[in-house]
Amino acid sequence: MSNVPAELKYTKSHEWIRVEADGSLTIGVTDHAQEALGDVVFLELPEAGRQVAAGEACAVIESVKAASDIYAPVDGEVIASNQDAVDAPESVNADAYAAWLFKLKPANAGDVAALLDTQGYQAEIANA
Amino acid sequence: MAKHTPLHAVHVAAGARMVDFAGWDMPVNYGSQIEEHHVVRRDAGMFDVSHMLGLDLEGPDATTWLRGLLANDVTKLHEPGKALYSCMLNPDGGVIDDLIVYYFSPTSYRIVVNAGTADKDVAWMRQRIAASGANVTLESRRDLAMIAVQGPNARDKTWAALPDMRAASEGLKPFSAARIGDVLIARTGYTGEDGFEITLPAARAEAVWNALAAAGVKPCGLGARDTLRLEAGMNLYGQDMDETVSPLDAGLAWTVDLKDESRDFVGRAALVANPARRKVLGLILEDKGVLRAHMTVFTAAGEGETTSGSFSPSLEKSIAFARLPLGVEPGGVVEVDIRGRRLKARTVKLPFVRNGKALV
């Protein structure tokens, strides 16, 4: 059974989002996603300063099996990406919620409210 | 409704991640595919390959009929139990399937074909028997299970688990098999490592699987099987060749035997009329990323295409097979289009890895 922490927000495309104290968003892929992907071997992450739109493919995660896009959960600007995860892609399998991928400064703080909560995401993966 | 091998319940109970493979519900991994890969390169792992189909061919015309069916020549086989890898071609020279044929006598053979092609293979063979009037019988052995035990310690651990198989299998040379009652134990595989492929009655499969596990042989899924065969330079049917591809363009010219000019096997005329137009080389990605099937390769001699690609756990780099213009040589640098970016790769002779050692 996949781990779905209560304090995070989620997307249907299996990203998790943590709202930080300063309003920025930290984004990764869920435990369910890493399990489905299998061993992660390569990450391509967006550079700081890039403007992204909600639903825009802005990163790539490659497992032994296949390549998958990672989507921006809301409109915003990329303010950081996690070089440690790029250097050790297997850290996504080890702990998908510790291995964050990039941080966004959302264009509209209110957009976060529309993302899935724990129950919503659990229902999503139960139906998958 | 997906088909189940005799070991299906064992995989599910072990928590394997199951996927559809050619209509069969099969384990892709039992946890980490990369760990399973390393276990086979360093110790001993086992695969349920019962989805493949064994066929018994018997009868006075068996040898003559196989010489007309297969691109490789079964008269190379003299010692009982000796195995031969061959393509079965259509009249245009395309590959209907690749298979292993075991020789027991000039009137008795076991053929092992791929799961995804089994039905069409049997239909084709039966049609060829009917058309030729050959005095042979062909029996599908879906009553059998197959377990591949692979790795440097595979044979020792098999003997520890199954001591009654030791005497018959100890002296087996690579690509040879022995029959022990209704069990066939072959020193063959699809990983580039030593080991056995054990064919046995389905009813005994679970007990043998559990005995092997108790002897320290780790269950491995189809995911690791794919990266192992890729490193070992072994083609996968449906990916590296199919009915539209000549074995001469799929790196399989070594399996086509044209020596006996009087042997008129299916596809021979097409192969003679259409010499190789492509060669298959390995690619090792120099830049960061992962090679996959159907990526365009740019070379000084023209464009080519990858047919299989993945991450190599042994080399810790991405590798691929590429079908390239004949002028491309190993040791060169080419470019591969990976989602719109052109990344550098080195061309190498296959295989990448054999018996636990990197060759590139």
UniProtKB/TrEMBL annotation, chain A:
SUPFAM superfamilies: Single hybrid motif
InterPro entries the record matches: 2-oxoA_DH_lipoyl-BS, Biotin_lipoyl, GCV_H, GCV_H/Fam206, GCV_H_sub, Single_hybrid_motif
Cofactor field: (R)-lipoate
Pfam short name (any one): GCV_H
UniProt record similarity statement: Belongs to the GcvH family.
Subunit field text: The glycine cleavage system is composed of four proteins: P, T, L and H.
Name this polypeptide is given: Glycine cleavage system H protein
Species whose genome carries this gene: Aromatoleum bremense
Lineage, opening ranks: Bacteria, Pseudomonadati, Pseudomonadota, Betaproteobacteria, Rhodocyclales
From TrEMBL, chain B:
Enzyme Commission code(s) on record: 2.1.2.10
Class of the enzyme per the UniProt entry, highest EC level: transferase
Origin superkingdom: Bacteria
InterPro entries assigned: GcvT, GcvT/YgfZ/DmdA, GcvT/YgfZ_C, GcvT_bac, GcvT_C, GCVT_N, TrmE/GcvT-like
Domain GCVT N-terminal per the UniProt entry, residue ranges: 7-259
Start and end residues of each Aminomethyltransferase C-terminal domain: 278-353
Keywords: Aminotransferase, Transferase
Pfam families in UniProt: GCV_T, GCV_T_C
GO terms of molecular function: aminomethyltransferase activity
Reactions mediated catalytically: N(6)-[(R)-S(8)-aminomethyldihydrolipoyl]-L-lysyl-[protein] + (6S)-5,6,7,8-tetrahydrofolate = N(6)-[(R)-dihydrolipoyl]-L-lysyl-[protein] + (6R)-5,10-methylene-5,6,7,8-tetrahydrofolate + NH4(+)
Gene3D superfamilies, alphabetized: Aminomethyltransferase beta-barrel domains, Aminomethyltransferase fragment, Probable tRNA modification gtpase trme, domain 1
Role description: The glycine cleavage system catalyzes the degradation of glycine.
Assembly and oligomerization: The glycine cleavage system is composed of four proteins: P, T, L and H.
Family in the record: Belongs to the GcvT family.
UniProt-listed PANTHER family: AMINOMETHYLTRANSFERASE, AMINOMETHYLTRANSFERASE, MITOCHONDRIAL
Name the record gives this protein: Aminomethyltransferase
The organism of origin for this protein: Aromatoleum anaerobium
Gene designation per UniProt: gcvT
